[in-house]
């Protein structure tokens, strides 16, 4: 199953032109790509314009490498990534390559330097990346607006220099912004050889006179700039949005419900050539069955949707998304989605069958686990989780019931029912998307009190699981399940893990405590830091003497308090009797 239901009917017309003008060679480079589905939905369409810096001998090579690199690499990035992540990673890599090339030829004074502006239209949003003095304009409802800001510094009347460009420095500062897109929007990209030699009001007049003829807009802008004695290369692109239409609710529901929900299944029944062996889980939202392919004899786990939601398009969309996401995650510590062996007649999907036990059962069977074994398992869970995060995807429901310990003793993350995919959220839909919060006790507090979850929310869940594996308890006890606001969470008190398991080192507990902080801003920035501190004593948490006595040894603390109270009482009685 793919996410065809999200197709936004994005259509556009376009034109472009680039000439050398009075210069000996053309150091500008331009490119537009309007991909086919599914890339048009998941990645959008792209226009890129670059102006190789004339004072750098390799300006032409720099502009060509930047435009060609962006157009090819952008569409090769994961479709779960946001436009911002994809664009910034590509531009950063291109900049490093340009800078490196310049350093290789520094003796020849061949600088690989170029300006660049890139426009990505995805769904109903324009994403703009900008470095230098190329420009992006938008013409809408009789107004021509410049959407980029020139990175130039004026040193004297009529004199300025380029303050920012690709290839100048190892570090790259990219302007990024987003704008809503409407049908009829006209985007125009130009190099400074064009826009610097035409007054703004005249540009607007040229656009209006050309009407719907985009090639005439490009031709006229370049011709008038040349007539105005432009000494530079001249390049222009025009891209008009014809439609950003998305299916209405009825159309979307029909698309989502093309296949029926399967009936309730029981052992012995056959669905699409898969024989049901047993049911392993059932809830109000879905069912899981162990099935055997009658042709190959291979066993899988089949997940089917609950008939309670067969008229709920938001639920159906999320169910379809589970397979889409799972097929894009690649880790030995994440359950693998199995491609269908034949056309489906019903809505369901298959994953590999893992022979093992849920982590929840492992915790019950191992009340006093070896601390090093727990740390090793958490390291593997973290590796599986990083496979999600590399795809800009959050699991959002990590808990012992969603982790299987296989026969080799390795943990495997299962279930994609609550995932958040950043790239998909950029695709507009008429649906009120079905957001499922993490399980109480394991889900990060920000799910309840309203702050947008990040990767640290999954980190929180991993740390809670680590705590439970070591102690059999939760770090804040059962009260956390009734918390709904930041004020509720602020009243919770963390119980050190070594109070329940004296084999847990204090420095290890310090790492866990930091990872389960209510305020996500005080947790570790990345999960790898937490995993490192679980096996390498961090001096910040290693000094037991720095801890209050009530945390180091609560029994001794309360004995001391009782002793002091007893002495005080005896002194008081003796004083009264005297």
Describe the structure concisely for a colleague.
With 578 residues, the protein is of the alpha+beta class.
Give keywords.
578 residues, alpha+beta, Phosphatase 2c, domain 1, Phosphorylase Kinase, domain 1, Transferase(Phosphotransferase), domain 1, 3 domains, six-stranded antiparallel beta sheet, five-stranded antiparallel beta sheet, 23 strands, globular
Description:
The structure is a single chain. The protein folds into three domains: about 240 residues, PPM-type phosphatase domain (Phosphatase 2c, domain 1, 4-Layer Sandwich); about 100 residues, Phosphorylase Kinase, domain 1; about 190 residues, Transferase(Phosphotransferase), domain 1 (Orthogonal Bundle). The chain has about 575 residues and is α+β, with helices and mostly antiparallel strands. The longest helix is centred in the last third of the chain and has 24 residues. The chain contains 19 helices and 23 strands. Strand 14 and strand 15 form a beta hairpin. The strands form six sheets. It has a six-stranded antiparallel beta sheet with strand order 13-14-15-16-18-17, with helices on one face. The model has no long low-confidence stretch (mean pLDDT about 90).
Assembly state of the chains shown: single chain
% residues in beta strands: 15-25%
The unreliable regions are: none
Mean pLDDT: 89
Count of separate structural domains: 3
Taking the sheet with the most strands, its summary is: 6 strands, antiparallel
């Amino acid at each position: 199953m793919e996410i065809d239901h999200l197709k936004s009917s994005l259509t556009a017309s376009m034109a472009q032109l680039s000439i050398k003008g009075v210069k000996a060679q053309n150091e500008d480079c331009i490119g537009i790509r309007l991909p086919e589905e599914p890339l048009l939905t998941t990645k959008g369409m792209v226009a890129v314009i670059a102006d190789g810096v004339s004072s750098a001998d390799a300006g032409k090579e720099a502009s060509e490498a930047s435009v060609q690199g962006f157009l090819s690499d952008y569409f090769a990035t994961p479709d779960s990534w946001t436009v911002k992540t994809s664009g910034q990673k590509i531009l950063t890599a291109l900049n490093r390559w340009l800078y490196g090339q310049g350093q290789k030829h520094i003796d020849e004074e061949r600088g690989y330097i170029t300006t660049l502006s890139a426009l990505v239209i995805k769904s109903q949003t324009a994403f703009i990346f900008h470095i230098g003095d190329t420009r992006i304009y938008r013409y809408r409802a009789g107004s021509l607006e410049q959407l980029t800001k020139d990175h130039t510094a004026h040193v004297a009347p009529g004199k300025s220099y380029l303050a920012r460009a690709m290839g100048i420095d190892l570090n790259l500062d990219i302007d990024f912004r987003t704008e809503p897109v409407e049908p009829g929007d006209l985007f125009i990209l130009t190099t400074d050889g064009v826009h610097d030699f035409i007054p703004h009001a005249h540009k607007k007049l040229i656009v209006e006179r050309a009407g719907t003829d985009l090639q005439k807009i490009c031709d006229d802008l370049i011709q008038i700039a040349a007539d105005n004695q432009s000494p530079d290369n001249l390049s222009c692109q025009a891209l008009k949005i014809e439609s950003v239409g998305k299916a209405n609710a009825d159309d979307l529901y029909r698309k989502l419900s093309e296949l029926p929900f399967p009936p309730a299944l029981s052992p012995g029944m056959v669905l699409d050539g898969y024989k049901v062996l047993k049911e392993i889980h059932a809830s109000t939202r879905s069912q899981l069955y162990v099935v055997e392919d009658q042709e190959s004899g291979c066993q899988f786990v089949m997940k089917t949707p609950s008939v309670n939601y067969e008229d709920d398009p938001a639920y159906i969309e999320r169910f379809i998304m589970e397979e889409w996401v799972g097929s894009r995650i690649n880790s030995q510590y994440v359950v693998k989605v199995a491609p269908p062996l034949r056309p489906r007649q019903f809505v369901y999907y298959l994953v590999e069958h893992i022979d093992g036990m849920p982590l929840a059962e492992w915790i019950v069977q191992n009340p006093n686990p070896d601390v090093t074994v727990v740390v090793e398992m958490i390291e593997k869970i973290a590796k599986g989780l990083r496979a999600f995060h590399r795809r800009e995807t959050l699991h959002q429901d990590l808990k012992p019931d969603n982790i299987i310990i296989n026969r080799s003793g390795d943990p495997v993350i299962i279930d994609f029912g609550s995932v958040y995919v950043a790239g998909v959220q950029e695709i507009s839909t008429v649906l009120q998307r079905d957001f499922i919060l993490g399980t109480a006790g394991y889900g990060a507090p920000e799910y309840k009190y309203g702050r947008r979850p990040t990767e640290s929310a999954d980190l929180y869940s991993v740390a809670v699981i680590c705590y439970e594996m070591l102690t059999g308890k939760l770090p804040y006890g059962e009260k956390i399940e009734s918390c709904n606001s930041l004020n509720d969470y602020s009243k919770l008190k963390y119980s050190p893990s070594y109070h329940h398991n004296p084999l847990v080192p204090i420095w290890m507990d310090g790492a866990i405590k930091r990872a389960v902080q209510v305020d996500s801003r005080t947790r570790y920035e990345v999960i790898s830091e937490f995993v490192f501190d679980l096996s390498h004593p961090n001096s910040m948490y290693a000094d037991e003497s720095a801890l209050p006595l009530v945390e180091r040894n609560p029994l001794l603390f309360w004995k001391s308090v009782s002793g002091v109270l007893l002495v005080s009482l005896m002194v008081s009685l003796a004083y009264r009797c005297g």
